[in-house]
Amino acid sequence: MSLPLRTALPDPALPSASDPLTVAADLARRLGDTANARDRAGGHAAQERGWIRDSGLLTLSIPEAYGGQGADWPTVLHAVRILARADSALAHVFGFHHLQLAGIALYGTPPQQRRFLTQTVDQQLFWGNALNPLDRRTTAVDTGDGFRLDGVKSFSSGSVGSDWLTVSAWHAATGTALIGVLPTRQAGVAVQADWDAFGQKQTDSGNVHFDAVALPADQVLQAPGVAATPQSTLRSQVAQLIMTNLYLGIAEGAFEAARAYTVDEARPWFASGAPSAAADPLIQHRFGQLWLKLRPAAVLADQAARELERLFRLGPDVTARQRGELAVAGAEAKVLAHVASIDISNQMFELTGARSTSARYGYDRFWRNARVHTLHDPVDYKIRDLGRHALDGSLPEPTAYS
Amino acid sequence: MSLPLRTALPDPALPSASDPLTVAADLARRLGDTANARDRAGGHAAQERGWIRDSGLLTLSIPEAYGGQGADWPTVLHAVRILARADSALAHVFGFHHLQLAGIALYGTPPQQRRFLTQTVDQQLFWGNALNPLDRRTTAVDTGDGFRLDGVKSFSSGSVGSDWLTVSAWHAATGTALIGVLPTRQAGVAVQADWDAFGQKQTDSGNVHFDAVALPADQVLQAPGVAATPQSTLRSQVAQLIMTNLYLGIAEGAFEAARAYTVDEARPWFASGAPSAAADPLIQHRFGQLWLKLRPAAVLADQAARELERLFRLGPDVTARQRGELAVAGAEAKVLAHVASIDISNQMFELTGARSTSARYGYDRFWRNARVHTLHDPVDYKIRDLGRHALDGSLPEPTAYS
Amino acid sequence: MSLPLRTALPDPALPSASDPLTVAADLARRLGDTANARDRAGGHAAQERGWIRDSGLLTLSIPEAYGGQGADWPTVLHAVRILARADSALAHVFGFHHLQLAGIALYGTPPQQRRFLTQTVDQQLFWGNALNPLDRRTTAVDTGDGFRLDGVKSFSSGSVGSDWLTVSAWHAATGTALIGVLPTRQAGVAVQADWDAFGQKQTDSGNVHFDAVALPADQVLQAPGVAATPQSTLRSQVAQLIMTNLYLGIAEGAFEAARAYTVDEARPWFASGAPSAAADPLIQHRFGQLWLKLRPAAVLADQAARELERLFRLGPDVTARQRGELAVAGAEAKVLAHVASIDISNQMFELTGARSTSARYGYDRFWRNARVHTLHDPVDYKIRDLGRHALDGSLPEPTAYS
Amino acid sequence: MSLPLRTALPDPALPSASDPLTVAADLARRLGDTANARDRAGGHAAQERGWIRDSGLLTLSIPEAYGGQGADWPTVLHAVRILARADSALAHVFGFHHLQLAGIALYGTPPQQRRFLTQTVDQQLFWGNALNPLDRRTTAVDTGDGFRLDGVKSFSSGSVGSDWLTVSAWHAATGTALIGVLPTRQAGVAVQADWDAFGQKQTDSGNVHFDAVALPADQVLQAPGVAATPQSTLRSQVAQLIMTNLYLGIAEGAFEAARAYTVDEARPWFASGAPSAAADPLIQHRFGQLWLKLRPAAVLADQAARELERLFRLGPDVTARQRGELAVAGAEAKVLAHVASIDISNQMFELTGARSTSARYGYDRFWRNARVHTLHDPVDYKIRDLGRHALDGSLPEPTAYS
Fold first, then answer.
1. Residue A7 lies in a domain
2. Are residues C266 and C293 in the same domain?
3. Closest Cα in chain A, distance from residue D395 (Å)
4. Does D161 lie in the same domain as D263?
5. Does B246 share its domain with B387?
6. What pLDDT was estimated at residue B11?
């Protein structure tokens, strides 16, 4: 399922078997073998999450000081993209694991960083997400030495099978949300495997229920009432770029499937007069159009990833303006990747034809995965934000989505 | 699942419970109740095909002289569209039943018409398709009193569970294809329930195998070496318009699903400032754009249906030019309906959002059904045919696809 | 410049030289000879307006009872379209003349209708427009036996060279606009030939100044404070359909120019391998796509024209619902015609190539004319209105634009 | 007319008044003041070409060794883009001057380079183009010490007012084209100011006639029968990237005009409920969509420019594969810039509305300029080339257009 170098977006040079992108490519190949079958079955991919753990890639983004591999964001995001070409559900679980780690780095105190990141390396922890600030159904009440959490959190990606969770909860006393971390198997936490979307089936994105769950003060990353900073709100830019690279991976996977099928299996249409499907000018032209969706999305995503890396390293020195300009660059890349993933996974069938719809290929999974995942936040509002920026230079307001 | 009159393409007045479109609407309602569940299960819908049979609609297109209901093509095609809003797989089985009957009317001698159409009424026969002239793997050899058929035929819509089949076979001696009719349960005919596409799952469109099957001379509708006439080649226009109305039905079903969800269930995006999703100007605008895909497709399809009816009644008097101009009108409508079904079933999710991807709605079936069915023949060649026509007035060459 | 019957939207049968559409086609041919030159020169086309007058077509929409030709709206609108293929500026002047007559029929009392329509026939009057309710700079003050008008009115199409004007003026006492008619050469009326848009140059659409102009009571069509009725607000639907047919005429003219150039003058691109430009599959495909913009727009425009005719004849019996549904049908047709005229006049050059940009063809005038005229009211709000209608069945609010 | 830094594609830091991009920006400002008026007048812009000469920018791409400024290609192309924002006709004349210099560098011998480039610096020569290999009407016949040229060459950009010309001529004896350089005022050379396209009016791109013109051997850059090399065919990539940056400049100029008009002059549509045009969500959304045309085109053009620079410096060591991959990158950028310039210059009016079509703004010139210039070679064949590349990795065949 890896794209041949000659046609597609070349991965950076992969010098050795221990290079993380080589590791990711190997893992992608292995996941690709069963991706179609697992898409049909759905459910929790315990074995395959084990492979991810075994690959060592769970420590990819963790600084070397804490025992991690200290990879930069372009590398981490590229790994997400490589996995997503083959299996965008597990790529999401993988990407969101690193999003939780980013949250610790961005919100946590140095001791918290040391504790949780070291622990993640030592115990090969898998992190899941229960942070969704638009969903106020989980509440936090002060208990003196921390908080008590109650309620439910939906769209909790990677929660099933995780070791620890990042969680947000509504704190009525201050009218703000706190953010903390919790072991998934703590008393009162119930993770439900009830995710039933028609795509991204194995993302373990169901509901998490909290019943009188104790959150100790030293596990609170952002206390209630504490204002977000340009640094802390970089977290949503990490999330947006993970999704962007996930869409790109789907787009690249679909493109390569269409390409290989056209070259290897498709027959020329009888009225075309072409000796092969790949020699048909109308097919060549449509491939060219889809290529022009893919390439700019990839180039702008890579630019934004480099800028994220730069700002991430600035730490508390990052300014609101820098953060806002990154949000613009990220929004540009995300909309292009959104469109690329949807258009390629949709239109590929005009190129490959009726026989390519057989379940033995499972090519519809590209569209279903792209379609489900691209609904994280409405693309029309991302486009509107870009329009506002173009009109008067205004920067997107920092939210969980921008 | 029927569209509310106020918003959508109104069906003609439905005067009484015995009116065929009322019957179709009732049947659609019943099919709609389980369409999502049956889409997931796939396979042969024996019970539901029984409902179609019980509805009496199998005789809809048969002239009253043979005991049928004598409906015109606009009515038959409208019934296909109504069923497709709720269940495009069974709508296809239903439509292709009438396509086989059209073939008998267009190719058959008067005695053949009398025999097979009367029999269809008397025995409530369900017809399936094994006619696919691009597939020459089924051969016909002269036997003196008819032909012996051997080989296989793919994409045989409605073959499973059918009573009779229309079949084409390659006759090497003349280098042409013959067309005949056969009882499905005749010795040597083996229908395989091996259709496994990711959409239109219950169309029973698998392979039919022929092993030394005897085709008597009086069951041959078009003998080898006999030239097609403008009249006989109307059959492919019937097929094209059935598909056009099927795409329209899918488009209308998806549009109505999106509309109802937006009005009844969707929440306004927090950054929109709108009091409801339905009041969001960006949502209203996108609905307007999708509406502008749907309406012209429906209007042009209805125009082409009326023209088909007119030419069908002309019988042998239809000219090549009339037939060609119908093919142009049909191509226009088919491309528009193709685009409408794909764009609406794809973009509806930008309107309905993440929660609408739950399996409990099964809204992805609209796209999967449209995507599989619209690959019958390449849309880019239909557009090219229209371009040629626009350039120099040339009419599409009569084929099984144009 | 008339479209060859074989390729384009055929005009209804033109039985005799006195048939109005034959007359329009002859006039179009004559206007077409100098359209390119006059587009470059701009200004007032006195001679050509004389030809229109001489053709007799100024009485086309006037009932036979008043000495007119009593043509129905489909015929009048078709004449607009035919003229617009050759010269969309003069087609606009012609169409808006009939819009003023429609206003008299819709707003005027029977005696007013008799007086002004008879006079129009007898004196071959040419009417211009100074009705623009969004522009409140012209005021009306009661004078006892009528009103005194002061101020200025912009976008007054056809005002230069007109005999009579329809005018709207803001009546502060009631907070409403009145509508009346005035001889253009009346004291205090100053028509400025100051229209300077980059397209539709000869529409004479400049500013009209009113300086203590007396408007007698019997020339008031709609008095201040009188509520608009479903009948009277049909006027904006007449206006919208005139514009729709104007856009269609431009689209058809551009399409035919591209077609003829491609067939007669274009050379095949050296890398295409095609023997001629017209045989190039990529060119054929793009012509097909443009054809699919043109045809649905024309079909829907014709449907809406028939419905306008029906409601126009209902007179005071027309209901708000009927009027609203016509507005929906008109909006559908207008958006499609807008898109067709812009896309065809813009994309035609991808088909005809560099040499077709020579001033000797003047093919850019199609885009300039379409571009200027399609800005009458924002297309995005028309699309939004259709989205609202699709969502909840709401009908566009009657305004001067919907 | 320069874009405000906050919204648009920021130019690289402009350190001092002598920085070439500062010089270009100043020159653009000066050209912008009269661009609308000169667009209407057309003809040869002698005075403004004098300003370009006086700016010193004619030596921008010439190596310092020959007395030039030694700017890299990204800088030269950026200067083209800056000028094109204000005046794309003179930007073309400027860009094609540097194309001729590139041709000398790529084809010429070291002595030829020294001679012609030094002379260009010393005499501030302005170069024009008479090289158009598809046009074989100019022939070269051997004369012993060189060649005699006869015939005509069309589309000779910048020829009027030039000092020297690059010329191609068909050499029948070898069946190949030679390339040479000539003083424009040499006997037998007649430059006609007969360019009459509806856009890019002041590019001086008329016909050049050759009547027994002597071309000495030492002015032949590429002799007949000499095979093109990867290095020499870089010339067409320089040409393609000049055009790409020209389209981008037009797109940026149109975007900025629309932005400024919307913010400063446009009124909100009465039905929008928005307090200003710039606050209308439908307008913001459309600006966002246009921004997403502009940004990727600029980013990919800049990437391709850097790659051109790298290969240009490799000189004879550049390989066919490197050259081909540059052609792919250039094609990607050129198609995106083509689409951006056409879509923005066309759609800007949906945002700015009817009043913005006044001749006092002259905003239609963006579309006319983009429309004429983007027809240099067919975009559909560039897209097809990209499709072929995506399908099997094939690289565009080196031609004058790819």
1. no
2. yes
3. 10
4. no
5. yes
6. 56
Residues in chain D with CB shorter than 8 Å from the CB of C270 are: 134
| C226-231 LR contacts (CB < 8 Å, sep 24+) | C226/C176, C228/C398, C229/C316, C230/C318, C230/C319, C230/C320, C230/C322, C230/C323, C230/C398, C231/C106, C231/C314, C231/C315, C231/C316, C231/C318, C231/C323
pLDDT in tens, C70-109: 999 999 999 999 999 999 999 999 999 999 999 999 999 9
C-alpha distances (whole Å) from D209 to each of A91, D97, D187 are: 64, 20, 11
Task: Specify whether C92 is located in the same domain as C135.
Answer: no
Q: Which domain holds residue C381?
A: 234-392
Radius of gyration of chain C (CA): 21
Nearest CA in chain B to C295: B332
CATH number of the domain to which C277 belongs: 1.20.140.10
Contacts with C195 from chain D: Cβ below 8 Å: none
Say if D160 falls within a structural domain. yes
Residues in D touching A299 (Cβ below 8 Å): 296, 299-300, 303
Q: What per-residue confidence (pLDDT) applies to A134?
A: 80
Q: Are residues C144 and C47 in the same domain?
A: no
Q: Which helix (H) or strand (E) holds D172?
A: none
Q: How confident is the model at residue C11 (pLDDT cuts 50, 70, 90)?
A: low
In a domain, B8, yes or no: no
Give the residue numbers in C contacting D (CB under 8 Å), as ranges.
Answer: 134, 155, 196-199, 269-272, 282-283, 286, 342, 346, 349-350, 353-354, 356-360, 362-364, 367-368, 371-372, 375-381, 384, 399, 401-402
CA distance linking residue C99 with residue C24, whole number of Å? 17
Tell me: the pLDDT tens digits for A203-232?
999 999 999 999 999 999 999 999 999 999
Q: What pLDDT, on a 0 to 100 scale, did the predictor assign at position A359?
A: 95
Show which of B102, B126, B150 is a domain's final residue.
Answer: B126
CATH number at residue A183: 2.40.110.10
Q: Residue C285: list chain A partners with CB under 8 A.
A: 282, 285
**Is the ipTM value over 0.90, yes or no?**
yes
D122 and D24 fall within a common domain? yes
Those residues whose C-beta lies under 8 Å from the C-beta of residue D313, and which sit 6 or more positions away, are none
Kindly list the residues of chain C whose beta carbon comes within 8 Å of any beta carbon in chain B: 4, 6-8, 255, 259, 262-263, 278, 281, 283-292, 295-297, 299-300, 303, 332, 335-336, 380, 382-393
Q: Are residues B200 and B257 in the same domain?
A: no
Task: Determine contact, residues A289/A332, Cβ cutoff 8 Å.
Answer: no
Enumerate residue ranges in chain D where pLDDT < 70.
Answer: 1-17
Q: Which residues of B touch D285 (CB under 8 A)?
A: 282, 285
Residues of D with CB below 8 A from B282's CB? 281-282, 285
* Residue C260 tokens, joined: 């003829």
pLDDT of residue B135: 86
Q: How far apart are CA D140 and CA D175, in angstroms?
A: 11
Amino acid at A46: A
Mean pLDDT of C138-150: 97
Domain boundary among B126, B157, B185: B126
State how many domains chain B has: 3
Percent of chain A having pLDDT more than 70?
Answer: 96
Residue D36, in any domain of the structure: yes
Do B273 and B343 have their domain in common?
yes
Q: What is the pLDDT of residue B132?
A: 85
Measured CB to CB, residues of chain B less than 8 Å from chain D are: 281-282, 285
- CB-defined contacts B:D, below 8 A: 7
Q: What is the average per-residue pLDDT within B204-227? A: 96
Average pLDDT over residues B97-125: 97
Cross-chain Cβ contact B357/A371 below 8 Å: yes
Residues of C near A (Cβ–Cβ under 8 Å) read 281-282, 285
Distance (Å, whole) CA B276 – CA D113: 70
pLDDT surpasses 60 at B10: no
Q: How far is B116 from chain D (nearest CA, A)?
A: 50
Contact C235, C131 (CB under 8 A): no
Q: B301-352: per-residue pLDDT in tens? A: 999 999 999 999 999 999 999 999 999 999 999 999 999 999 999 999 999 9
* Span A270-275, average pLDDT: 95
Chains in touch with D (≥3 Cβ pairs < 8 A): A, B, C
Is the model more confident about B14 or about B127? Answer: B127
pLDDT given at position D135: 86
